Amino acid sequence: MTSEVRVPTLGESVTEATVATWFKKPGDQVEVDEMLCELETDKVTVEVPSPIAGTLNDIVAAEGETVGVDALLANISEGGEKPAAKQDKPAATAKVEAPATGGDAIDVMVPTLGESVTEATISTWFKKVGDTVEADEMLCELETDKVSVEVPAPAAGTLTKILFEEGATVEANGKLAVIAPGAGAAAPASKTDTPAAPSAAPASGDIEDAPSAKKAMAEAGITRDQVTGTGRDGRVMKEDVARAVAAGTSAAKPTPVAAPRAPSAPQDAAREERVKMTRLRQTIAKRLKDSQNTAAMLTTYNEVDMTEIMALRNEYKDLFLKKHGVKLGFMSFFTKACIHALHEVPEVNAEIDGTDVVYKNYVNMGIAAGTPTGLVVPVIKDAQDMSFATIEKSIGEMGAKARDGKLSMAEMQGGTFTISNGGVYGSLMSSPILNPPQSGILGMHKIQDRPMAINGQVVIRPMMYLALSYDHRIVDGKGAVTFLVRVKEALEDPRRLLMDL
């Protein structure tokens, strides 16, 4: 018997949703109430459980499709019934069609990529056709907009087919390769599939590093000799670069890559290098440009005397570390000061939804973090309820995940305000770009000793420029200036944070 899986009631006045993620694929066994997929509406996320135990026969509504209430999502065969044979839907970006394989062949599929993620780019193949693989041995690495996903071998055997080469775009749950079971399986006599790039390694013994690793080394400003490769035959992988950067490898100034320009003289073209942008860099570029095109962005500036914060930090940093097991940094003070200011100027913590302004009665603080592959913004949820120690621990944990490329999509979503610290790179002043749909972002900068007039006397003080970029559609100049003044007051006299003044 076959049971239908349909869209549940989505809520008052909600008539449709988008299929965000399928957690099962056709042929998978499911239990009663086991989660099959996740739907997204304008405001909420809805989980769809299995109505019966059995086998997922087919998926009617793929990820990314919009469905109405009570629409058919999938069919489940009750008990141990096997689904009818079904032709796999090819990925839209397939370059080579997979030939038919024997009944014992095992398909290597694209795993679940994360919330609302429907496709990925193959960054690196670690095996080539004909190689023997062990169960759970890593076959390739995929890159999505925000995270990297490793694809292990589902069984031991011989890799007989690779359906997509490095750089190809694949859909979620699409087929990547085929494995013939059994460690002694022979490589196929003939092959129509496009081989992965590693198979073209020169016979001289030169090791071709992973493309994602090359890009990460270029962006981090380090050379091949500064990284220890852990891949096959000493190949440098992206995570090797991340470890080298995290370990404090001395970074050399990166060699600039010539920007594409037209026309280009032949003698110059020979000295130029063209590198395809990673999916993360493409997403960053698109979101930042969309932010400029959508928001009426304006930036206002102020400066803060860091004397009191630095004195307080120096006085209590040892006791703080001893009690809480984490160092007392500046970020917790800035986070607390921003939360304090957001309560007084709530429009900076709001967002525009159509013709409505949505005010947030909570603060999910985004902390911009630079990684070898690009800028990411992990979010500290409900920061308004956290102590200094909890904030420092959360920032430390998120920063480590960002450097290792292990942030989940959920950990980078839902932010209401963002802090970006360009001062760690030596920036004296800048205008940060909004992180949509947020309406405000605070830019921190380098602490620099400067002569200041204090009570008629010229004294040297550690000063920092602050920059607030805001969406002028909902935040007026008065509100933006008030916000910065409140942040300045809280940092110059930290006792105000304790007294809620």
UniProtKB/TrEMBL annotation:
Domain Peripheral subunit-binding (PSBD): 208-245
Gene3D superfamilies: 2.40.50.100, Chloramphenicol acetyltransferase-like domain, E3-binding domain
Catalytic function, reaction form: N(6)-[(R)-dihydrolipoyl]-L-lysyl-[protein] + succinyl-CoA = N(6)-[(R)-S(8)-succinyldihydrolipoyl]-L-lysyl-[protein] + CoA
Any one GO molecular function term: dihydrolipoyllysine-residue succinyltransferase activity
Sorted UniProt keywords: Acyltransferase, Lipoyl, Transferase, Tricarboxylic acid cycle
Disordered: annotated span: 186-234, 247-269
Domain Lipoyl-binding: 2-77, 105-180
EC code(s) of this entry: 2.3.1.61
Cofactor(s), by name: (R)-lipoate
Biological process according to GO: L-lysine catabolic process to acetyl-CoA via saccharopine; tricarboxylic acid cycle
Compositionally biased region (Low complexity): 186-204
Pathway membership: Amino-acid degradation; L-lysine degradation via saccharopine pathway; glutaryl-CoA from L-lysine: step 6/6
Entries under Pfam families matching the protein: 2-oxoacid_dh, Biotin_lipoyl, E3_binding
Domain of life: Bacteria
The protein's enzyme class: transferase
Record-linked InterPro entries: 2-oxoacid_dehydrogenase, 2-oxoacid_DH_actylTfrase, Biotin_lipoyl, CAT-like_dom_sf, E3-bd_dom_sf, PSBD, Single_hybrid_motif, SucB
Gene Ontology terms: cellular component: cytosol; oxoglutarate dehydrogenase complex
Subunit (UniProt): Forms a 24-polypeptide structural core with octahedral symmetry. Part of the 2-oxoglutarate dehydrogenase (OGDH) complex composed of E1 (2-oxoglutarate dehydrogenase), E2 (dihydrolipoamide succinyltransferase) and E3 (dihydrolipoamide dehydrogenase); the complex contains multiple copies of the three enzymatic components (E1, E2 and E3).
Function: E2 component of the 2-oxoglutarate dehydrogenase (OGDH) complex which catalyzes the second step in the conversion of 2-oxoglutarate to succinyl-CoA and CO(2).
UniProt record similarity statement: Belongs to the 2-oxoacid dehydrogenase family.
Matching PANTHER family: DIHYDROLIPOYLLYSINE-RESIDUE SUCCINYLTRANSFERASE COMPONENT OF 2-OXOGLUTARATE DEHYDROGENASE COMPLEX, MITOCHONDRIAL, DIHYDROLIPOYLLYSINE-RESIDUE SUCCINYLTRANSFERASE COMPONENT OF 2-OXOGLUTARATE DEHYDROGENASE COMPLEX, MITOCHONDRIAL-RELATED
Protein name: Dihydrolipoyllysine-residue succinyltransferase component of 2-oxoglutarate dehydrogenase complex
Species whose genome carries this gene: Sulfitobacter marinus
